Amino acid sequence: MIAKTIRTCFPIAVAAVADKAEEINKLNVFPVPDGDTGTNMSLTLQSVVKELAALPVDADMEVIAGAITHGSLMGARGNSGVITSQILRGVAEGLHDAGEPVDASDIASAFRRAVKVAFQAVRKPIEGTILTVLRDVSTKADECEKRRLSVEETLDALVVEAYQSVARTPDLLPVLKENGVVDSGAFGFAIFLENFVAAALGRTSKIEDFSATFDADSARAGALDRVKIEANDDWEGSEFRYCNEFLFKAEKPFDEDEALKFLGSMGDCELLVGAYPDYKVHVHSNTPNLVLEHMLQFGQIYEVFIHNMDLEVAERTAKIHADQDGAAEPAKPLGFVAVAAGSGEAEILESLGVDVVVSGGQTMNPSTADLLDAVARVNAEAVIILPNNGNIRMAAEAAASACADKKVYVVPTKTVPQAFSALFAVLPDAPVEEVVEAMTEAKSEVRDGEVTRAVRDSQASDGTPIQDGDVMGIICDSIDIVGSDVKQVTLDCINRMMDDEEGDALTILAGEELDDEAFQEIIDAIEEAQPDLEIDAHRGEQPLYPIIFSIE
Q: What is the C-alpha separation between 230 and 180, in angstroms, rounded?
């Protein structure tokens, strides 16, 4: 029963943390912004989800505990992720011998074990962090055990205590109060616990609505209202610039305490967790190279991540300023979200009025969650999404259906040039339904083409054989031209389209693999072949497609 509960509820709680990752990131000011706490916790937890998903259906608690320990250790990112991995390890170990059904005593035992494991991993525990909240939750679990509360009563009490403890973190840690935030890792832990408990107690069947409906609501509000998120440009941060973390496989026994002392001499926030031969190493240092060289004496290092925390501080502050500036302005009637694969495409879309450009394209389709996040960042009463790829349309429509706080529409553009034409057709001050209609009509009048290279043997629309590596000209989704030269294939495509139906204007975008000289040669060839065609040429910088164009 307990094994099944963990496997069912863990992914739901992880999804909740992922959904709140950006909100958690904004709180991240202590000990230093080593990456984004919400993102790091989410990645750590997702590693566990993958490990659990790979287990057989009948896996027992011992196997599940091992998967949680191994998955969280291997996937741990940042200081918060490593500590989270040790909390999970402790709880899993504590539940190993739990009875069936679980009672308050088993829950208290699991959290006592988590406190022991997590505090052992941190050489200098700091009050007002995730460790404080963990300890407070464990203390509350002990109280519930003594009072012989039911499992449901116990779990409810732990969630309330978690949020109340989060709300107290600024009183324990001055840097939090100075920056106007609660502790980011503590908040992430409370979100995970709340949603795991809600799933375990069956309070809802919709993942996106997993929020416990008991007293945690007021406790959560207290945590969020306790302080106001503000950008503090005066905070000096840490004397150490780099967050250095990696996995380490020992090839021979070594003195773990001495290794920790060495890490401490290199910087701060040092962690060495795991068991021979597999470990996770984390430290903030100005000399990450010396850290790596030292550990290489004892074994192999892999999956190395080195983050510049000074740059992350600046990015975080700028983002908070932007969010606050946007929130201070009244919502405009209509905003736009568009998908683009290249930096040049994104710049053009923004110049045409797109508020948020989502990175994506043929080989990197953004998810529904990515598009929903983009919509949320647009300060407008209604938003139109331009997917600019047939493979992204369904995700865009799902985002439009899922958004509850504003009207969202999709103009089903298949290419970026279609989006350009659609944006030119926007009717100022018109009802949004009329704008959508006008944009949809405008994009349908665009004839577009793409030039790329084949990645496998195939055949063109007329049966012409295509070999891996051949240059293909795609006209309105049909592979019509096959050759070996990008310039010639582009010219052949445009000539054929003009023969089929004359156009007045050509918009053409150069991909990242095409240099300026080669691009100019293509433009010169088009001007010579089609002297009456007005050419609007830009750097699109899209990958995989050296040329994208449209004719109107």
A: 6
